Amino acid sequence: MMKLDTILAETIDAATKGYPLSSPALPIFAIRAQRWSVLAGDLPLPLAVIRDSALAHNHAWMRDFTASTGVLLAPHGKTTMAPQIFAQQLAAGAWGITVANVQQLGICVRFGVRRVIMANQLLGRAEVGAVIRLQESHPDLEFHFLIDSQAQLASIESIAGSQPMSRKLTALVELGVPGGRTGARTFDEALVVARAVAGSKAVALSGLECYEGLQVTGDSGRDEIVVAALMQRVHDVALACDREGLFAGPTIILTAGGSAAFDIVARDLPMQLSKPVLTILRSGCYVTHDSGFYNRMLEGVKARSGAAWQSRPGLQAALEVWSRVQSCPEPGLAILTMGKRDASFDLEMPIVSKRYRPGTDAAPQPVPASWKIANMNDQHTYLRFPADADAAPQVGDLVGCGISHPCTTFDKWRALFTVDDDYRVTGAIRTFF
Questions:
Q1: What DSSP string runs through 160-227?
Q2: What is the dihedral of CA 29, 32, 38, 42, to 10 degrees?
Q3: Across-strand partners of 366?
Q4: For the whole model, what pTM was predicted?
Q5: Per-residue model confidence as pLDDT tens digits over 320-349
Q6: H or E element, residue 174
Q7: Spatial distance between the Cα atoms of 39 and 413, rounded to a whole number of angstroms
Q8: Closest Cα to residue 247, out of 280, 204, 278, 276?
Q9: Which residues, including other chains, have CB under 8 Å from residue 167's CB and lie 6 or more apart?
Q10: What are phi and psi of 91, to 5 degrees?
């Protein structure tokens, strides 16, 4: 059971970006009752919002997908770093939460998550010490980190040897790819590390891990071949480790699955060994999805997953950033009141999707496909459109943008407001970056 009372009781005020400038400070639990409206101008822009209906749809979609494929889900918490969303993911059936570092692990434990995978190497005196203390103070915590070298193991053992431990740490040997990030590059290297972990007095071997996302291009045929080959490498190492009795626990964890080709992982990673195997996906971006990169990748997921998944609605873009047209200084150009401080720009520019003209529109209207974000500064965005078009943005218009890559929008906001389909505020999601 997650413990969100302290978050809901936390007071936020106009020092928080997006909070109404004339409103008194309020605890998060009281925000819904204010009935603020984005379209009525109750909140200052720019503003990042999460649409409740799309968020609920995405939870149900991934719950159904994992249930139909027989795999488990430990969504990557780094996407949102929002314990309120973690609680929703767990309530929707997630096995646990994935993190990227020990600080994020601490946030999970603080708010009640008790199954955590750290999809990264554990290293450093402060970090190893913190993990040991968390395990000692929380006997119900199940935590797995990645390991890919004997040097890393030796460092952990040296630190662990100076601290009291009632149980071993648990690690997943990581398999990497040439030119990629971390992870053992060959079968022999992975097996050597697995044997060393199995013989350690401080660390136990709980399974294997890999990450296929760096190899995914969107070319479905190529992606199937490349990802399937990586899953086969995991199988080969898992069989070898199992034959030698290297896995320590009652179950064996095999985990992969970013947000671009998780269907191939769900299809090809499961296998039978001498102990029950837990196949765990770590997709994180699905929860709010996006309007760019991952939306395109989803088309490949649906196409590969059969007629039933092709015919049903896919994931929906729940995350939007709204801003205002502040200037139309020349034909074909409008300047918006948002910038790189507010929305993702690492994979591609935000995607203009909606316009609302106060006093004229009853609801947000779709924009012409010709409207494009051309560039962004820290606090300004350049919206380009045909200079001779009949429909053109005007100073004062509200513009809603979808984003590409939700991870790098969430980290720009201390709190994101949730909204209903009429853009009335229903609450606030607190982030912990």
A1: HTTS--SS-EEEEEEE--TTSSSSB-SHHHHHHHHHHHHT-SSEEEEEEEE--GGG--S-HHHHHHHH
A2: -80
A3: 354
A4: 0.96
A5: 999 999 999 999 999 999 999 999 999 999
A6: strand 169-175
A7: 20
A8: 204
A9: 135
A10: -65, -30
27's enclosing H/E stretch is strand 26-27
Q: Is the dihedral of CA 285, 287, 289, 295 positive or negative?
A: positive
pLDDT of residue 194: 98
**Closest Cα to residue 310, out of 299, 318, 320?**
299
Where does 120-219 have alpha helices with state H? 125-137, 150-160, 187-198
| CA angle (122, 126, 127) in 5-degree steps | 25
In the chain, what is the greatest distance between 2 CA atoms, to the nearest angstrom? 73
At residue 79, what is the residue type?
T
CA 245 and chain centroid, separation: 34
Residue type, 171: A
Give the list of residues 6+ apart from residue 188 with CB closer than 8 angstroms, or none.
none
Asked if residue 154 lies in contact with residue 193, where contact means CB atoms within 8 angstroms, the answer is no
Q: Write out the two tokens for 410.
A: 């969430």
In the block, residue with structure tokens 């488990």: 72
List phi, psi (to 5°) of 224.
Answer: -60, -45
